[in-house]
Specification:
The structure holds two protein chains of two kinds. By secondary structure, chain A is an alpha/beta fold. Chain A has 17 helices and 17 strands. Chain B is of the alpha/beta class. The longest helix of chain B is centred in the first third of the chain and has 15 residues. The two termini of chain B are 12 Å apart. Classes of the chains: A alpha/beta, B alpha/beta.
């Protein structure tokens, strides 16, 4: 018991450190940007002659000041980006991507820079007949490509070409960006991927890079399970040199990798649909309402995901290549470990159809959403499935400040409550635990401004109770929370409000909206 | 000629943004240094759009926006938020608000008007 308490304390300390670091970086980034805004604004206007023409020498100085301001901004962005990726706070958004489309887009983006430098960007076409596709985060891969092209252009002499070659070797895609610049010395081929590991100190100043571009590329590629490295070009018979940066990525992520890359939360909804647009739309609706979401495009991967981690519910498409929705739900229900997970069918078919085994599906599944759907329908059905029950919604307010509790309670009592909610009040953690253990509420409003951080402890306790793990939660705090803190406070659909920023009426609006998703008017099915 | 209200508690940023919109786009600009002040000015001047900072003491951008939405005379003025907070979690906060758009600091003073026009769907 004592050991476990020590471990808990050590874990708590680590979490606090993590939170501090996260907050620090976020605050610093914001604080640095504010004065830079004025500097950049003032210099930009002066430099462009908006207040009158400036003489050449003055114009040059302004240009220097202005471009270095831009460099500072890029540096802040890169530092923040790299830190967030490496601490896992920027999970990948995985979709099926077309390599050709991404390369074309990158070349379009970098064309004007290339033209200005007198460099030609040449795409060497894929040898494959069918376009190469892969699972990845399109925006992040785009970031890698433009970064590599930018480097290649910067270090290429005018009149030369930068070549982009794409191909695949079985399960991996391979991409090469080749320039004919001065080349990287053999002993620096690895270190250029380190932070601020540019080949020569002068490069940062002259080429305007931040020194973090390749470190960011490496981080992104690693998150995709791939590798990136650089080689010197050996143009035999020619007097030229140059560098080729090669990147190799697995085309299909293993289920564990996909799950890890998506930073699986504890209490998530699994969305299974082969249409990426549906996944994106559903994901957006759910996340906007405080749910955590895991997406996958096929039945096999869905089964692998639920085998490895807990999900609260599954939204399941029917018509999918490979393992269909019918087969997937059959397997889910046959397996005792997954049979209890509520499944909501998401399909163009109507639940009252007599074809395609629909009647049987209706009795096997716990809910049905017919496409096309809208946000309220989606949430109402999901809420109904996750929080079965009837009668007025019970809300528990955990608030130790009596005055504030009075304000919140009276604002609820004075408001229109078409669904009739009952509001209970717990003035301490202990009281809250007692009430929750005896009769789980439908939604919890938690005031987090408690001196000893016991709000976190309450959420941890709730998470360990099977009936309360997916409790909808409204966290009401005195200051903005970091992502790390928010992830510690999530149960079911969780919304975060900051006291200074909201009026009690906003809390009430939000809570009623959430309760509406749990309780439909008695007698109706959403 | 467009009439814009800029709300930001930072004097320098107000000044630079105003100068940018005036001299580059020829727009007419009003300024306010707080959410409360901004609401008063919005009523008085009825601008075509509002460019509003997010992080302000007392009433921040989102709170001011919600308050504006409750006042019918100014509820239809489109609002573009200007923020230095570029992290994903912060953006999600703004997503459900109903503002016309979000621009990031530091902004390019030569294209600020263009960016606003584009976000607002002005030609």
């Amino acid at each position: 018991m004592r050991e476990s308490a020590q471990q808990q304390s050590a874990l708590q300390q680590l979490r606090q450190l993590d939170t501090l670091k996260d907050e620090f970086i976020s605050t610093v980034s914001h604080e640095l940007r504010t004065p830079l805004t004025s500097i950049r604004g003032a210099l930009g206007l002066l430099s462009a002659g908006v207040l009158g023409k400036v003489d050449d020498k003055a114009a040059n100085l302004l240009r220097i000041a202005s471009s270095n301001t831009d460099r500072l901004v890029r540096l802040i962005n890169d530092i923040l980006d790299l830190e967030r990726m490496e601490s896992g706070r920027a999970p990948l958004q995985i979709r099926r991507c077309s390599l050709r489309d991404l390369v074309t887009q990158a070349v379009d983006t970098m064309n004007s820079m290339a033209q200005a430098a007198g460099v030609n960007l040449e795409i060497v076409p894929e040898p494959a007949e069918t376009p190469i596709t892969f699972d990845g985060d399109a925006d992040r891969i785009q970031q890698v490509l433009t970064n590599l092209l930018s480097n290649a252009i910067k270090f290429s002499p005018s009149g030369s070409s930068v070549r982009i070659r794409t191909g695949s070797d079985g399960n991996n895609l391979v991409l090469q960006v080749e320039d004919s610049g001065r080349g990287v010395p053999p002993d620096k081929l690895e270190t250029i991927f380190d932070r601020f590991g540019q080949v020569e100190a002068a490069d940062a100043r002259q080429k305007g890079g931040t020194g973090l571009g390749l470190a960011i590329c490496r981080s992104i590629v690693a998150q995709h399970g791939g590798t990136i490295w650089a080689e010197r070009n050996d143009f035999s018979g020619k007097n030229t040199s140059g560098t080729t940066v090669i990147l190799r990525l697995p085309r299909h992520m293993a289920a564990e990798q996909a799950a890890a890359a998506l930073a699986p939360p504890e209490c998530a909804i699994l969305v299974v649909d082969d249409d990426p647009i549906v996944r994106q739309l559903v994901g957006e609706h759910l996340r906007r309402n405080g749910y955590q979401v895991i997406e996958t495009s096929n039945g096999e991967q869905a089964l692998q995901i639920v085998a490895k981690q807990h999900v609260e519910a599954i939204l399941l498409d029917l018509y999918m290549p490979g393992l269909s929705g019918w087969e997937t739900i059959e397997r889910l229900k046959k397996n005792p470990a997954t049979a209890e997970i509520p499944v909501v069918i998401l399909s163009v078919l109507s639940p009252s159809s007599r074809t395609a085994d629909v009647p049987q599906l209706v009795s096997t599944a716990q809910g049905w959403i017919q496409k096309p759907f809208n946000e309220s329908l989606l949430l109402a059905e999901l809420g109904r499935v996750l929080h079965p029950g009837s009668g007025p919604g019970r809300i528990l307010l955990v608030e130790d400040d009596e005055d504030l509790a009075t304000v919140v309670i009276s604002s609820f009592q004075n408001a229109e409550t078409p669904l009739g909610v009952t509001l209970e009040h717990a003035a301490s953690m202990a009281e809250a635990e007692q009430i929750c253990a005896a009769d789980p509420p439908d939604l919890l409003i938690l005031d987090l401004t408690l001196p000893d951080g016991s709000g976190f402890a309450l959420v941890d306790w709730l998470r360990r109770q099977p009936k309360l793990r997916a409790l909808p939660l409204v966290v009401y705090s005195g200051r903005e929370l970091s992502e790390a803190e928010m992830s510690q406070l999530r149960l079911g659909p969780t919304q975060f409000l900051t006291k200074a920023r909201v009026q009690p009426r906003d809390v009430e609006d939000l809570v009623l909206a959430m309760v509406r998703h749990i309780r439909t008017p008695t007698g109706d099915r959403a | 000629m467009r009439r814009i209200l800029i709300i930001d508690d930072e004097d320098d940023i107000r000044e630079v943004a105003a100068l940018s919109l005036e001299s580059v786009a020829g727009w007419q600009v009003f300024t306010a240094s707080s959410g409360a002040d901004g609401i008063r000015t919005a009523h008085a001047e009825r601008p075509d759009a509002i460019l509003m900072d997010v992080m302000m003491p007392a009433m921040d951008g989102p709170t001011t926006f919600r308050e504006m939405q409750r006042q019918p005379e100014i509820a239809n003025i489109p609002v573009v938020l200007l923020t230095a907070k570029v992290q994903g979690v912060d953006q999600r906060r703004f997503a459900g608000l109903g503002v016309a758009g979000i621009l990031f600091k530091p902004f390019d003073p030569l294209t600020l008007a263009e960016q606003m026009a584009s976000t607002l769907g002005w030609s």
